[in-house]
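Notes continue from the previous slide.

Worked example: a multi-chain complex. Inputs as given:
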Amino acid sequence: MTDTMPEISSDDLEKFRADVAAFLAEHTKPNASYEECQAFMGKLADAGFGGIVYGSEYGGAGLSRAHDRIFREEASRVPTMSNEFIISHGMCLPVLNDFGTDEQKRTYMPDCIAGRTLWCQMFSEPGAGSDVASLQTKAVLDGDEWIINGQKVWTTLAHKSDYAVLIARTDPEQVKHAGISMFILPMDAAGVEVRPIHQIDGGKHFNEVFFSDVRVPKENLLGELNNGWNQATAMLMYERVAIGTIGGGKISQPTFKMLKAAAEAGDCLDDANVRQDLATIYSMETTKALMSLRTRAEMKAGKAPGPGGSLGKLFGSVIAWRTREILMNMAGPASMAWDNGDEGYERARYTLNSFQSSIAGGTDEIQRNIIGDRVLGLPRDVNVDRGVPFKDLKVGTQRTD
Ligand SMILES: Cc1cc2nc3c(=O)[nH]c(=O)nc-3n(C[C@H](O)[C@H](O)[C@H](O)COP(=O)(O)OP(=O)(O)OC[C@H]3O[C@@H](n4cnc5c(N)ncnc54)[C@H](O)[C@@H]3O)c2cc1C
């Protein structure tokens, strides 16, 4: 990233802001489809606003964190066009940039930035979610190729993706965090099978993915051999920041607005309890926006996202839980039964979807552990695996023979 940028004048930044605002006003629209978002990413890159902080040799704009902040501020004023690109752009791109070789960055980053390729994250397995270091997908080097066998689960957008950032065990003789490596997996490689998971709200956004003797070139190792855990931790930090700072360019209260509209529609805005609930959500969202701004300011100052990102992630999920309760109290049975096209459907969807905020990107309990241990300096969780080679552990779905 461009930490050594020369001083930028405020006039230049204001001109940049005006250019971005004009571009966004022309090219964004509400409820854009995936294809429209993809086309938008291409236009963004063509206009010099794609991958703002990444080097121009890697398809980025080669600009500063100050430009990035201005871009986010302006983007938060218009309908979002980035939903399905959050994993690609918010998580895979920074990891490619941090750990990729020059050749990998030249090969993969320009297409990712311009939305020509979509990326997904393959960490979780049936026996390795919160404790992802227990993963058992294996990668074994065979001449010039890695052979991958195993299974991932909950892989968001695997069915649409061109590539995955995958972690696999490369040395079971080492302790469980040490023998893991990170790979770039082309989703069209022979032996990759994607099976959709049907969700409670009717969607099919995530998948099970199976690997049967999948061969990828040796060069697809991303970062250092057996350093995958440190890299995965960095990616999880980016993930928490991406989730915890959604809409983080400005102080806004989108959930409050949604609830207020629901109260107006249900004719209960005069109810003192409802108004109190609305005020609570308003203040919680304002606090979360301020936390996001702080996280972004730290990143602008050149700090890698730290465990503080967990605060924003956790608070987002606390807000979702509280909002769900308020919505159900306000709408009663009308939030569970509706006619085609009426608002009850949107409310029920919010309610069902709100549960995922406590799981995706690390559960609430895990965020609390991170905050306790690494922000507040409290004693660490008990660790029974310390010093034991992975092959000797009885963890997750590990066989006992
Ligand atoms: C919408 C969504 C999208 C996702 N997308 C992806 C994706 O794209 N790629 C990917 O790799 N994964 C993805 N995941 C998976 C997600 O990261 C895992 O579900 C999550 O990390 C939890 O793991 P688990 O489901 O195995 O639950 P478990 O780890 O089995 O946890 C079960 C329960 O035990 C609690 N628990 C576990 N360990 C502790 C502990 N040490 N202390 C206290 N409590 C504990 C948990 O909080 C939880 O309540 C996604 C999940 C969701 C919901």
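Summary box: The longest helix spans residues 272-300. The chain has three domains: 10-117, 120-227, 245-362.
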